Amino acid sequence: MTEYRQDIDVLKGFAIFSVVLFHMGILNSGYLGVDIFFVVNGFLVIPKIFESFSQNKFSYSIFFRNKYLRIIPLVVLASFICLLIGCFGLLPENLKNLSEAIIAGNLFSENIFLNITTRDYWDISNNFKPLMHLWYIGVLMEFYILFPLLLWIGTKILQTLNKKTEDNIILILSFLFTLSLILYLLPYDNDKNKFFFLHYRLFEILSGGVVGLICARSGCANRFPKLHYISITLLIFVVLSGLLFIQDIGYDKPPIGCETLNDLTEHSIQSKPTLLLLTVFLSCFILYSNNSGSIILNSSFLANIGKRSYSYFIWHQIVFVFYRYFISTELTLKYVILTLAITIILSELSYRFIELRVNKTNKAFFLWMTLSFAAIIPSLWIHNHYGVVRNIPELSINFSNPSEGRYSGYNGRVFDYDKDFPEKNGKKNILVIGNSFSRDIANCILESTYKDSINLSYIFELNRNHCERIKEADVVLIFSFKESVPDYFWKNLKEQSTVWGIGTKCYGDINEQIYIHRSSPNYRNTSLPIRNDYLILNEKLKKDWGDHYIDMIGISTIDNGLIRIFTPDGKFISHDCLHLSKDGASWYASQIDWSTIFLSDKQINT
């Protein structure tokens, strides 16, 4: 295993190339590059552990120290850079999330953190998380920590059978591989959980390790040249097949409500178990066949990328995400060229001046551990301060009095109104039905001058149990297409009641793209083009509801056809570009003609 194999670096280069294209938003199947990395890691690491255990020379402290020093320096550097940029340009919600990711990343638990928070690797929000890719580091370090311990415990137990240490290790490897593969294949858990946790990923690492052990025992002679070429071709096809299906700009938010439109449904990207297993098998076979001289695996260019693959892995997602935060979420040639150029420069610098220069000594270990905690400590403060590092008047946020859940709490307060109407009290009964856009309208009502003269009731998901509330409603506001409203709703509606459709809305892609220009003199006059998919959805809803439609986009559109971002007094209308802030709801409350909505006795045709 001491002989240098260029094909391994080429394989790593191909893997990181795939991962980079995936996170860029171009290659749907590029996530399979991570599975190649798992196999290669097992191939390189497990034979060394096996040899040390067999000779009773394994030192857990030295092994962990070396792996820690291989990984942590770039994680620490990336953490400080992200923290610096984040404190300058991110708004509290996203800065708080970044601080949590820094803490988790430096404790090698980003995979657990993502599973708890996002749960889905393909969730659109992950495209705005600069350190979300550290989930892979988490799985890998958990393997480095736990696997030697499992081997040690297993060999101690099996020693009672008077078997050789080597036989015991092979038995343990076989058991763990089989158990992990069975757990992965069993349908008892969902694919989202299987993506993040070591026990589902362990078989990938161990499969590479088994191949490494075979190669260590039988030498590295070239094998199966014809099958080798076929397997490489198949691997390239499997991983690059996603080029045929460029993502629908994975970091664009689909329009809320689009699930009811066939032509606007979100393109779903999910992990395919068959592709994963095929990628693992082909990677193992390529490593086993060891034809380094083949044309495909003889690329010095890919080999050089492979040597720097860890640096590329750390920096690419960070560069992509901050570009989306501060410049644009559009997939353009400028985006591709600029982000790749920055990634290449950062990767080369970190490879030459950090990766190649970190000494595997106890002194270095304690130094980098100290620096790691130096990144964690300010992140803890930011987390405990809810991401607020300055006054943000645009969101009515005060540094000296931050609060948690300021947005979700405001939008969610309407759930307190999920109750029946009171006994007749001379006030009109207003029923609001639907998702968070409906809750926005309810908040507008609660900010209006009518809030004390009406009875408000809210329903998130309509069902037959709500018929009594429908019968008592004088005015109903609902986010839905008219044809999607169930028949029992119309049958239980009072003849004199009115029904209004609630409009969709969108205020750009992400507020950080606006906030970064806060020193500009025209900052609070910012307006943006309206996303075409939201315009289409709005026109469909408007046509559907006719005169009984609350056109939220129309209200906030200014003379030049652009959507306003700020209220006249300089507050963000929306904290997340979709839902209303308190200031935004107050402004809309002053713009909506409530008298027409609440006092009209003309019922919409059903």
How do the strands and helices of this protein lay out in sequence?
Blueprint: H1 6-24, H2 32-54, H3 60-89, H4 92-106, H5 110-117, H6 135-158, H7 165-185, H8 191-196, H9 198-218, H10 225-240, H11 273-289, H12 300-307, H13 309-326, H14 333-355, H15 362-384, H16 406-412, E1 428-433, H17 436-447, E2 454-459, H18 467-472, E3 475-478, H19 487-492, E4 498-502, H20 512-515, E5 527-528, H21 532-545, E6 549-550, H22 552-556, E7 563-564, H23 582-591, H24 594-599
Parallel strand pairs: 1-2, 1-3, 3-4, 4-6
Antiparallel strand pairs: 5-7
Give a short summary of the structure:
This protein has 606 residues and is mainly α.
Q: Characteristics of this structure?
A:
single chain, 606 residues, mainly alpha, Rossmann fold, 2 domains, five-stranded parallel sheet, two-stranded antiparallel ribbon, 24 helices, 7 strands, 56% helix
